[in-house]
Amino acid sequence: MMTKSGNDGNGLPAPARSSGEGSRVLRAGFIPLVDASVLIAAVEFGFARKEGLVLELVKDVSWANVRDRLAFRQFDIAHMLSPMPVASMLGLGSNPSPTITPFSLGKGGNAITLSTRLFERMKEAAGLSETASALENARALASVVEAMKRRGENLPTLGMTYPFSSHNYEFRYWLAAGGIDPDRDVKLVVVPPPLTSDALAAGAIDGFCVGAPWNMVASERGVGRIVAAKQDIWPSAPEKVIGMRPEWAEGHPETVSRLIVALDAAARWCDRSQNHDALAETLADARYIAAPVDIIRRVLAGQFNLDAKGNRRDIDDYFIFQSGFANYPRPSQALWIYSQMVRWGQCDLNVAGTKSAASAFRPDLYRTALGNENAPSGSDIRMEGDEDGDRFMDGHVFDPSHLAEYVRGFAVGRASGDATNDEEI
Fold first, then answer.
1. Which segments carry the region annotation Disordered (predicted)?
2. pLDDT tens-digit profile of 370-381?
3. Which of 57, 200, 288, 375 falls 20 to 30 Å from 4 in CA-CA distance?
């Protein structure tokens, strides 16, 4: 195990320091979630310092704040939701300042939690077992929603973290796979991640999709039941990334490369289970997540208490910080995000949008820093969800070269594109 003053090396040469940029101080915004681990470890365990960087981490309260502070140059880089750079390059949302990512922060970490009251209704309505699958849970919720409509009850209010978020698209994907229209059968609202458990306890919402550790915080308080994890919906779904303004990246190429080398080393360190005790203790600190260290440690291990009744589930590789090229910003994943924006009516499908969405993920900067030998082989535009262990929960396969056909293939969706033919990449 490493101490905070050391490092374990990553076997990669640091980028040449010839541009005169010198030592850099980077202000980085983050949200208190376990998927900020790589960024936090880069600071606390010396990986940034080894590359001549000083990272000043600033804890923020919402993704909208992080977006705005990056746009207004209060941050140099930021811990961001993977759809945020895509949305920015498409000009979506308020203040859509161009943003790119050269580095993903890993895979996994999200889950869907419903109130214990709503889950009990699902069990009664559908004869649901305690070991029901994510799809069975979604279908059981659909039966409850139909009953609520017949009785004139208020439909469930469900929280997610941001309109352009993996949580929103994963929640919608799960709901739609069960036969629920997210825009007609439930009410989706934005709730900051640290407030989700309290909102559920207060009855302000009936469920949420959010990153760790807040799902297990709710289940251990006895106010929620975890009904699906990110791995159930699509294991390779892109999660959080490092966002930066494109002009800043162009003006600081050496700093970007040094940052990627530092984050790569930190991600490798975070992946090693022998380092998880030290990582959990660091994350639990009030400066970062401010959650119980034992919950964070179990989340890192993929050991879940689904509720307060003793029902448990172990999820292998619930968090993957580096292995399997988890940090590679693959443009086909950006295009999948774009497909979901089109599916739910956030934007149109056209050639210009396709190019803009793909441009948000920058594998060229990753390769410049780490070399082609440390990047995946093959095309950066590939089929997604077509391999064993990486399937979508409803069996769909994403072919980026047939975006229009893919979006039209769903029974539930609000797709409003001007494309009538498949878009070729």
1. 1-20
2. 999 999 999 999
3. 375
Return the SS3 of 112: strand
CB 267 within 8 A of CB 38: yes
Cβ atoms within 10 A of the Cβ of 365, count?
22
In a domain, residue 154? The reply is yes
E strand map for 18-99:
24-30, 53-59, 77-81
Q: Model-level pTM?
A: 0.93
Instruction: Please report whether residue 192 resides in a domain.
Output: yes
Taking each helix axis from N to C terminus, what angle separates 134-151 and 116-126, rounded to the nearest 10 degrees?
Answer: 90
Residue 198, helix vs strand vs coil: helix
Hey, is 77 helix, strand or coil? strand
- Look at the chain and report how many structural domains it folds into: 1
* Owning domain of residue 151: 110-233
- Asked, for residue 299, whether it belongs to a domain, the answer is no
Angstrom distance (rounded) from CA 205 to CA 188: 9
What is the per-residue pLDDT across 7-20, written as a single tens digit (0 to 9) for each?
444 445 444 444 56
Retrieve residue 232's tokens.
């159930």
Pull the structure tokens for residue 166: 């993996």
Which CATH number goes with the domain that contains 172?
3.40.190.10
Token representation of residue 5: 């003053």
Scan for tokens 């979901």, then name that residue: 340
Alpha helix positions (H), 210-330? 214-220, 230-233, 246-251, 253-271, 276-284, 293-300
